[in-house]
Amino acid sequence: MKALLNLNISWSQDIQHVKVVVRVVVVVVVVVVVTVVAVVVVVKVVVLVVEVVIIIIMKYLRKQTVDDSFKLLRHGALIVHSSSIVAVVIVVVVKAVVIVAVIVVVVVVEVVVKVVVRVVVVVVVVTVVAVVVVVKVVVRVVVVVVVIVVVVVVVVVVVVVVVVVVVVVVVTVIAVVVVVKVVVLVVVVIKVVVVVVVVVVVVVVVVVVAVVVEIAVVVVVIVVEIKPVGDIFFR
């Protein structure tokens, strides 16, 4: 906005400078025209005086009578004076028309310049405002797009992290379950081995006991059966 105000101030100063220049030009033109008209009038008067003097000199040279000379002088003066007046009037009218035309042209040019400058100022201001609005809209759209992209990226990252955590937890749980099952299986195997060992030991013990018992029985039987025979033999 400050830039626009400075721009408007500079344009206003330029307009004032243009106005001053136009007015100076108008004044100079008017002065020149008035000077030309004054010079023309002076020249016409000088010509009139010279013509009158020439008529008087010619009258004396031709030795005419006083009445003839006055008639000649009057006739020539009237002709010169009437032609000079007509010429001066024509010149004055022409100069007046020229002055009026110049003033009208200057006024029209000044008005046109004002209108053009105002139109240019309005166009520039509207263009600047439109550019500012477009820039604001573009900036807002970019901000919205960036926010959306950031939100999407954050959501994707969170989802990926959650999925990874879930996968890790599931894998850990599965591993724990597998380990527990392996431990349970090992325990079962150990129990089976222990039972088998106990059974084998019991069987071996039973077999050994049975064998020992059988041997003892045999020994007892042998002892019991052989003793009377020995007694008889030794008797």
From TrEMBL:
The record's keywords, sorted A to Z, are:
Membrane, Transmembrane, Transmembrane helix
Transmembrane residue ranges: 20-39, 45-62, 83-109, 115-135, 142-163, 169-190, 197-224
Statement: the UniProt record of this protein carries the keyword Ribosomal protein: no
Q: Where is the signal peptide?
A: none
- Under what name is this protein listed? ABC transmembrane type-1 domain-containing protein
What organism is the protein native to?
Answer: Elysia marginata
